[in-house]
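Inputs:
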Amino acid sequence: MTITEKILARASYKPKVVPGDVVFTRIDKVMMHDVSGPGVIKVFNEWEKKGKRFERIWDPDRVWVTEDHFVPAADIVSSQNIIALSNWTKRYGIKRHYKYGLGQYGICHTLSHEEALVLPGEVYVGGDSHTNTTGALGAFSAGLGHTDIAYVLMNGKIWFKVPETMMFNLMGTKPDYIMAKDIILKIIGDVGTDGANYKTMQFSGETIKQLGMDERLTLTNMTTEAGAKNGIIEPDIITDAYLRKRTNTPYFPVIGDPDARFSEVYTYEIDKLEPTVAKPFSPGNVSAVRELQGTEIDKAYIGSCTGAKLQDLRLAAKLLKGKKVKIRTEVLPAAQSIYIEAIREGIVNTFLDAGAVVGPPTCGACCGAHMGVLGKSEICVSTTNRNFPGRMGHVESQTYLASPIVVAASALTGKITDPRDLVN
Amino acid sequence: MSREGHDREPQLPKSVGITNGKAWIFGDNINTDIIIPFRFKSRTNDPYEMAKYAMYGYDPDFHKKISSGDVIVAGRNFGGGSSREQAPVALKYAGISAVIAESFARIFYRNSFSIGLPALEVPGIKGKVNQGDDLSIDISKFIVQNLRTRETFQCQVVPKFMRDMLMEGGLVEYYKKYKQFPWTHM
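Outputs:
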């Protein structure tokens, strides 16, 4: 069995599962946020109206709630949602409610790893499509809708169809100025935005061993954009070192069997990879940066669970150090802890000295919510994960998805720029 | 007009038995930002309000042009993107009785069964149905017929508990009727 099959088998108390089996699995952790939360609460309310009483939920200690999409509260509806969420977590005794302006908070997927809320071998579901992110820790992590999340909150279980696994072997040494974002954009360009539909995308190979956790998380985060049910990387010493800095909780890692079967096996020679971007209006509409050299842009955005982790900010700042941006540049760290560390390391000063604006942790304009929403015909180069029409604002705005290094390089010139050209 | 509490529920197309409706044709990769843009879905929890934004990214007046019972027929990867349950909810409450597609994005597919919108996977449907064709859908048998050409299509079969959940109008409605969940005996 693959790692995904073994995790699902263990969680459904079966000795073996094969792709296509429908299993009823025990859930270890569940998350909802300020947008999915109110939808989940509404399902609860409907069940209550129809005779189901909820004195308690399944396990308040396995649940966490984040405020991330519309915070700091963007308008009255947002603050009402946050109040409703606070009342709900209080009623059911959920201690892990990460509130903005009250210490640690941030984007749900970022907190899942920053706070070590999910551990290797666990089954984790969240009310958000990018829940896949946390698979980089060696967990089965998948997004669900409100009704499914409400059911999990009640019963601690849910059904899954065991997915086939596509294996991506990443070989060779990662060149300078190439990031995990370039790798995953290249892969999505190849397999297409439904190329992994219903399936698992697993990443392995020597390049993975060179990637730190922040970079691995970019790979699994973007598996959602290829339609994958989950993305996963087998836990190793890098995973363990990352977690041990954050938690003492013991965990029970799972790795795949040597004879595990994959539906497809892809091999990528990462040492030959070029800086890569996805053009409007699909994460699968991929080009080498070189082919787009000189494309004029209006704005650079460094934010989101995909592209505002500490390593993302570090590498963007390294390129911006001592220089001035030529277009509007906005930086929104993905969590308070990352923001604090970025201040300690001088990264925030580098951004400010370069002329960028640094804002509070939030999903912000990644999903067109607030904090830098794009106007008609505005063109943005962004470290985020999606560039569908209207995703970051006006339906006629355009977003180019790129790595933090490419976004920083482009911010300095006002054009889509290959970072290697700035350095040479 | 407020519909809080749903005291007065307007007629929704029934998802039980056989339904008839006109086809609306769409291409591949119709994502959730087209079905209901984020800025609208997060503004309300009222499904009838959401229905006004159904397919807004394609045509802001879509909800006015369709009739109750109409069917969406699409290509590959319908519903990609967000986990927003508002996407199938908006379509259902706008009066769409089923979405037929070559393939679906996984969360949209799953959410559709949870909220009782028939999502029918029919590989090969593309090109077999024209805009405005009358379709007949037998939800209990997972069969679609194009009444113009008389051609019949078998939809991809799903586990029994998913079909049961769909036929009752979703998980909440199923619970209301049986006071238990469809997979209780799994």
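Remarks. DSSP finds 16 helices and 18 strands in chain A. Chain A has a mean pLDDT of 96.
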